[in-house]
Amino acid sequence: MTHQIGIGVIGMGWMGMVHSRAYRQVADRFYESGIRPRLVICADEAEERTRRAQETLGFEQVTTDWREVVEHPAVQVVNIAAPNYLHLEMVRAAAAAGKHIFCEKPVGRTPEETAEIEYLARKAGVLSFVGFNYRWAPMVQYTHQLIQEGQLGRLTHYRGRFFSMYGSNPYGLLTWRFDREQAGLGVLGDIMSHVVDMAHMLAGPIRRVVSRRHTFITERPLPRPAAGGTHFAVGQPDDPKGPVTNEDYVSALVEFENGAQGTLESCRVIFGPKCEMAFELNGTRGAARWNFERMNELELYLPEGTQAHDGYTRLLAGPGFPFHGRFNPGDGIGIGYEDLKAIEAYQFLQAVVEGTPRPPGFREALQLASVQAAMVRSWESGTWEEVVSLERQEPA
């Protein structure tokens, strides 16, 4: 059976283009599912971006007004890839229109805004999904499978991190990501969100945290139209500067509900790692470690009682691991970042076809936001803080 699903994308920067290409891949990579995404309309305030998307990706219509995406009768899924400060307004409109919603992380600028977004979607009865794409890497999925099967035993330790150099140049422009009013939280929202989501998927809910934050680069050159608008754009030393109003670095000690102990750490200005989204975990029977910079590899320790196997073994991804065979049939032939986005798009559209939520949706984003809120409280108290659910309840 064929399932045609009308897609509307808001925000046609890098991420909006990535999402749109991912939808186009679904009909090919997951052909037997019968899912046939239809790129109906895209929106961006920069008209040239929408025209390029139409010419290269085949959108039927384009607009500079995002509301036209939400209101379009052929759109069933609204995909939000706009800056953070627009998410709440867009989700409110999409939920009111009864559209299913894909939103890039962080869902809200603050934990409280994420809680509002989750409530709006839940109240409207629409399905939701969030761009936590790292969880779809085949070797991550395999690790999750090993944990669920009990092959690593009871988890005792978890260490998660996301180190990126994208903000390491002090002359990197003061784009919206470095502004609390537009972005909300800094690295806690931007990339620590991936770390916490991965920890939740692999090790389970977090009970309490103690956290620290720091801003290493306190001012940056103001953006200029000619310099470009991405968070990779760089200005000049003599450019006018403005203050960075959110954090560059966050770390936390965490205690999981299952008793495992852990550390979480993220930084956008560290010098060295390019995109080190990684974890190391240990159980009573084995251990595993993975790094996105080598995403098609997994180091696995599953001792068999002989010296020959008493150490970590490097596994290479191949069609025997989850999802890999959708992209190529050979062991050791790697897949890439945008392939994870294709898996992600398929998972969401399959949920739409089935009418049943699949993680990670706004519910998982709310669990993450509850951890973020505890970290923020810890910044102020300087001590351990319990994770308390931010879920909003229906008025009595």
UniProtKB/TrEMBL annotation:
Q: Which regions form coiled coils?
A: none
What are the residue boundaries of the Gfo/Idh/MocA-like oxidoreductase N-terminal domain, all occurrences included?
6-132
Q: Name one GO molecular function term.
A: oxidoreductase activity
Listed InterPro entries = Gfo/Idh/MocA-like_OxRdtase_N, Gfo/Idh/MocA_oxidrdct_glycsds, GFO_IDH_MocA-like_dom, NAD(P)-bd_dom_sf
- Domain GFO/IDH/MocA-like oxidoreductase, first and last residues per copy: 141-288
Q: Which UniProt keywords apply?
A: Oxidoreductase
What PANTHER family does the annotation carry? BCDNA.GH03377 (PTHR43818)
Q: What is this protein called?
A: Gfo/Idh/MocA family oxidoreductase
Q: Which organism is it from?
A: Litorilinea aerophila
